[in-house]
Amino acid sequence: MDKTVAKALNLLENLVKSPEPLGVTDLAQRLDLTKSNVHRTLDTLRQLGYVEYLPEQRKYRASFKLWQLGTWISENLDIKQVASPHLQALAEATGETVHLCLLSGDSVVYIDKVDCKHHVRPATRIGGSAPAHCVSTGKAILAFREAAAKAVIGKLEKHTPQTIVSKAAFEAELAAIREKGIAYNRGEWHVETIGAAAPIRNAEGVVMAAVGVSIPTSRAKMPDVKKLAPTIRATAYAISAALGFHGKQ
Question: Around 136, how many Cα atoms within 13 Å sit in the side-chain half-sphere?
């Protein structure tokens, strides 16, 4: 066991459980550590955003970062469980690989997937990622997340000849997604893979994820993908409804 990590976590647990802010002396006594050790650990946790210093009291308390992380984990677990049967149904209806994705910075992370039964399939894995501006699931989320979209638009990187790198063109793409409720990947990440995706909303109506279908170009072309749009949108809405959303998708 790493003693430094253990000390930091024990200190953080004490702050979380305490109804009042704690000082260096209080924590040193509780944890049987030197004041200098406690101070160094608190300073590191403060710089990382896990602890807040209250200068008027000269004491510390846990920040809301832990709550935010816990909420994120909870939502991720919930959405995987809720979405699972819908992903299976979409895979059966389309005969292709289905992905469930979240946005992480300027990338999407694959948190779940259902592989197609074909020998040739997209080379993705759960836990893997892709540039959000290049794939349909990423664009489906960015279209409804203004701040995230602005950050991504500032650094559009070309990966294939089809990748959209023009700010104006990408903004137009996002506007079309908001209007139609469907996003497309025209071989913008890997030239041999195309697809479509729709946004998933939580109970508050916030777009938190996307569900999409990916297909090798050896098996389909964009007109084929566009025919799947109603089914993909319906799946996204069903997942959103299961998460407590009942408004207009």
Answer: 29
